[in-house]
Please model this.
Amino acid sequence: MVLLSQDDVIRLLPLAECVEVIDEALRAVASGDVVLPVRAILWLPDRHGLLGVMPGYLGAGNVLGVKAITVMPGNHGTPLDSHQGVVLLFEAERGRLLSILDATAITTIRTAAASAVATRALAREDAGDLAVLGTGVQATAHVAAMRAVRPVRRVRVWSRNPANARAFAERESARHGLAVEPAPSVRDAVRGADLICTVTSASEPILDGAWIAPGAHVNAVGACVPRARELDSEAVRRARVYVDHRPAALSEAGDLLIPIQEGVIAETHVVGEIGGVLVGAVPGRRTPDEITLFKSLGIAIEDLAAGARAYANALAAGAGTIIAMGGERLAGA
Model:
C-alpha cells in the first residue's frame, strides 16, 4: 500500500493535469459510468464541525474508494485547513487497499480543477476580469485555476479581514506576475467582473444578485450544507444554474435549497450537471449576456479520479511510502 502525504499529492497532482482528470470524471458522471451515493454526514453535537464519508466507484480505471473528511470552519485563521482527512483507494476486483492519500491536498486541487472545468465550459471566451471572494487555500487555488482556462487580466480580492486581502493580493501578485487588487467591499470586488469565485466560510449571503454584471460566470464553492449559502436568492434566480451532481446538490446545497424553500426558484431552475454540458447532452451558455452559475458541492468521483492519478504518478516516479497493511488470509484461517 502506498501512503501519499500532503507534499506528495501536491507534487504528483499538478493543477493543469487535474483539470483534465476532473473533466473526464464529470463526463463519466454524465454517461452513468459511476456509482455515486450522496455522502453521509455526521455533525458534532454542538455543530461546530462535521465528519463526511464519501464513497464511490468510477468505471474508468475500475476505481473504488472513499473519502473520509472533517470540515471545521473554525480552522479559518489558524495554521490548520478547514478540511482534514484521507482518501482511500481500493482495486475493485479483489478489494485490496492500494493507497491512502492526504485529503486536504486532494480536496484543494480537485475543487479548483472542477471550477476550471465549469469555467471552460460556461464562461465567455474573453472572460478575464476575476473577482475572488475569500483568501483561504481555495482562493489561492482558484486564481491559478482561472488563469489555466481563461486569459485573466485583472484580479480583485475581498475578505472580511482587510489585512488578509492585502496580504493575499501581495502574495498572489508576486506569484503570478499579475496585479491583484484588494477590494474594500464585495460590491467593489465584483463590479464589472466576468469571472467570480466565492470561496468563503460564510453561512449567510455575501454576494447580492444585483451586483453581478451581465455575462458573468460564477463559481460558488464555499457553502456545502443545507443551512449555509454565499449567494442571495436573487443571484441564483438571475443565473442559469449548473451543478456537479444533481441528487447531491438538491439535498445539500444551501445556495439552491434556500431559494427553493423561499419559492424564488424551483428545482427545475437547475439546468443540469456540468458533465452533461461537456458531453453535449445539456445546453450551456446561450448568449454573451447570460449569467451562468456553477454550484460546486464536491463529489467523491472527483476525489477518486484525482487520487487515482496521483497514485499512478507515484508508481511511475517511485514516490510515496510503502506500508504493509495486510489483507492476506491469516495462517490457519
Q: What stands out?
A: The first helix runs from residue 6 to 12. The chain has eleven helices and 16 strands.
